[in-house]
Amino acid sequence: MAQYVYTMNRVGKVVPPKREILKDISLSFFPGAKIGVLGVNGSGKSTLLRIMAGVDTDI
């Protein structure tokens, strides 16, 4: 079984007025993995990173 350094399962984020910016996000990282987050403006990249960092806990 793989040992992940970070895992999150089925995470979502809704902001007023009922705008879903992240839906059912699941990911896992192996030690030493290099990752990138790509997307158009307003697609939720910064929100995803804030959730991963533990800054945004309202999920």
Write out key terms for the chains shown.
single chain, 59 residues, alpha+beta, two-stranded antiparallel sheet
In short:
This protein is of the alpha+beta class and 59 residues long. The chain is 15% helix and 36% strand.
Can you walk through the features of this model?
- The protein has one domain.
- The protein contains 1 helix and 2 strands, in the order E-E-H.
- Strands 1-2 form a two-stranded antiparallel ribbon.
- A hairpin with a 3-residue loop joins strand 1 and strand 2.
- The longest helix has 9 residues.
- The relative contact order is 0.27.
- The model has no long low-confidence stretch (mean pLDDT 93).
Q: Main beta sheet: strand number and arrangement?
A: 2 strands, antiparallel
Q: What is the count of DSSP helices, taking H or I runs of 4+ residues?
A: 1
For the terminal residues, how far apart are their CA atoms? 28 Å
Mean pLDDT: 93
Strand order of the largest sheet: 1-2
Summarize the helix and strand pattern as letters. EEH
Q: Radius of gyration from the CA trace?
A: 12 Å
The chain-level structural class is: alpha+beta
- Total separate domains: 1
Beta-strand share of residues: 35-45%
Gross morphology: globular
Please estimate the helix content. Answer: 10-25%
